[in-house]
Amino acid sequence: MKPYLSSKKKLDNVGLGAVFGLITPIITLYGFYLFKYNYLSFSDFYSKILLANNILLPSISLCVIVNLLVFFIFIWTDRNYSARGVLLATMVYAGYVISKKYL
């Protein structure tokens, strides 16, 4: 087996993809906060902007779209198990949004 194949297989697992899929929307939301509302503390942004305007769930839904980029990066680099992990994390976010919105 060639050495580059074994190093690539280390990065090809569902757990790693799930971690990337769970962290990427959080980083995206934090980046939006830094870009638009950096004059507030993050706790003020969360309570006064997201919760007070009732836009937390739409914000989460939009931040999860960035998982598409992570998913396709894993697909293009032939890391299919990691792509499955990203898909799993996206389903977790979708389940959370659906449960909060309709239940």
Give a written overview of the molecule.
The protein has helices spanning 3-10, 14-36, 42-51, 56-64, 67-76, 80-102. It is mainly alpha-helical and 103 residues long. It has one domain (15-102). The longest helix is centred in the N-terminal third of the chain and has 23 residues, at 14-36. It is elongated.
Number of strands: 0
Radius of gyration: 16 Å
The coarse overall form would be elongated
What sequence of helices (H) and strands (E) makes up the elements? HHHHHH
Question: Quick gist of this model?
Answer:
By secondary structure, the chain is mainly alpha-helical. It has 6 helices and no strands.
Keyword list:
103 residues, mainly alpha, 6 helices, 81% helix
Could you give the topology of this structure?
Elements: H1 3-10, H2 14-36, H3 42-51, H4 56-64, H5 67-76, H6 80-102
